Amino acid sequence: MDFLKKHYEKVLLGAVLLGLVAATASLPFVKASQDEALTQLVQKRTTIKVKPLPAIDMSGDDAALKRAAEPLRVDFSVPHKLFNPMPWQKAVDGHLIKVNSTNVGPLALVVLTNAPLYLRLTLDAANTNEGTGRYTIGVQKEASTKSDERVKRQRFCSIGQKTDMFILRAVQGPADNPTNVVLELTDTGETVNLSKEQPFKRVDGYTVALKYQPEGKSWTDRRVGNVLPFNNQEYTISHISDSEVILVEKSNQKKWNIKYHLNAST
Question: Is the Cβ–Cβ distance between 212 and 105 less than 8 Å?
Answer without folding.
Answer: no
